[in-house]
Amino acid sequence: MRASIDIVRSWKEQKWAYFFIAPQLILFALFLIYPVIEGVRLSLYDIKFLDKEWVGIQNYIDLFSDEVFRKATVNTLTFVFWGTALTIIIGLFVSVSIFDKSERYMTFIRGTYYLPTIISMVVLSIIWSWLLNPAMGVINHYMSVMGLERINFMGNTKYAMPVLIFMVWMVNIGQAVVLLVATMLGINTDVLEAADIDGTTRFQKIRYIILPMTKKTTIYVTIMTIISIIKVFIVIDLMTRGGPNYATTTMMYLCYQEAFKNNSLGSASAIGVLMFLIVFILSATQLKHFRSDD
Amino acid sequence: MIKKLKKLDKFDLISNILITIFAVLNLFPLYWMISSSLKVSHDVTKMPPVWIPIPPAVQNYTNLFKNSNAVIWTFNSFLISIGTTAAIVLVSSMASYAFAKMNFWGKDVIFLVLISALMIPKEIYIVPLVKVMQYFHLKGTIIGIILPNVALPFGVFLLRQFFASVPDSLRESARLDGCPEWKIFTRIMLPVCKPGLSALAILTFVQTWNDYLWQLVMITKDNMKTLQLGVAGMQQENLPDYGLRIASACVAAVPMLTIFMIFQKYFTSGITMGAIKE
What we know:
The complex is a heterodimer of chains A (about 290) and B (about 280). Chain A has two domains: about 1-40; about 65-290, MetI-like (MetI-like fold, Orthogonal Bundle), CATH 1.10.3720. In chain A, about 75% of the residues lie in helices and about 5% in strands. Chain A has 14 helices and two strands. A two-stranded antiparallel ribbon of chain A has the order 1-2. In chain A, strand 1 (about 45-50) and strand 2 (about 50-55) form a beta hairpin. By secondary structure, chain B is mostly helical. Chain B is about 75% helix and about 0% strand. In chain B, helix 5 packs across helix 9 (about 155-165) and helix 5 packs antiparallel against helix 12 (about 195-210). The longest helix of chain B is centred in the first third of the chain and has 32 residues, at about 70-100. Chain B is globular, with a radius of gyration of 24 Å. Chain B starts with a helix and ends in a 6-residue tail after the last helix. The model of chain B has no long low-confidence stretch (mean pLDDT about 85). The chains are: A mainly alpha (about 290), B mainly alpha (about 280).
């Protein structure tokens, strides 16, 4: 009797469970799984307006022999590497320096470093392209007052990429600091106090206690930052338009150009598939981190 | 205060001075944006700059709202952000309740599939996504702009732990009282999980407000543009009037700054929730 009630109950509960997860699952299937599969399919066609011709992996072959795509790949690597490295190194430096200070000070610093993330990349790009403008920008004005030569930051192959790296560093540092500080605050204070009594120097404490104990979060933030830099679009579009001479064209920017400006959907889809693979592999390393239930 | 500073070692002290200087420098672009938007037109690009516009002029704002569709853009931004937030909070709280509190066939596998897509941004499959929207005749519609954001499983991940922390006994006793499953969810679970829901709502709202590429490829008509699109468009047209451009940037940024100042603690909890393992 008891068992049959349990079965009835669990069957009823199952029905409710599926009802509760249904909206999320349906949307997930329609607007995430389906487009990803569709992307793989489209990447195997040569698409011109309404004409579609099956070409197999020709789009991929064409991409790898295309000089612009190769340049975009190298640019993406540079962009992601420096953007992430700066975010992590400075993020760790800032977090280690502020996490054991007064609450108000910590909140103020964390807040100001997070501000650029709040005010959208569009707004940030507009402010900074004005500040850096060679003719009308404040920075160049004071550089020339100090006797330095004016620099066309966004129009010069030497400076365009560093400027963009600075921009993505600025929008990613806030999140890194929030996560790292939270992890450091979670370190058992007994451990830190014991180290103080033993007379460890601050440097030793950071090197042997704090950094190892924030390793998981650091890796997580690294992966998250890489992914968020891979998908950057608007900063490039507003500040450098991928130039000068493709110096700041990344895979994401090229993907957009191919799809929505050059109307070659097949090749744009192929770039999308490649980016998807990179991101998927990177995020797979974090699966264990997300699944554990502690 | 001085005693406290003395306790810091030299390296720590110098680090914190640098960090504070940089924090103040971080505020400078914001100050520049807001002060410039309040300058009269011949002061806007004047060098050396007019640092404090006295008296502040609202002419850039009146021009903006008179000569552009800024009012409509603002309305659209609110509409899309509120719609997306409401949909995400509803859909992901339902799903995370089921994952946290119910047993059903395939639970672990389904959860694994959802979670494996956690870090994948929609920008990466944006080309086929637009195609899919065309197949469903949703391109250029508000619903079409909202739904792909709701498909992302971030909310489920963020809320699941919240629902898991609600004691089972609460649910059991409600059930013994004959309370139907749906009411347990709306009357008991949702109120208990309010802090989690607020954090998710605020993060989603800001993210949607600041979204760009997806809106760019979905919206073609000017009267459907959001603030981000409108503001970026003015920049790309290279209008000579810097005051107008920077005022429009202000209109896009100030609502988010206000939300951030009021709800800062929700940002912190939303970002760290679920992501930090001790």
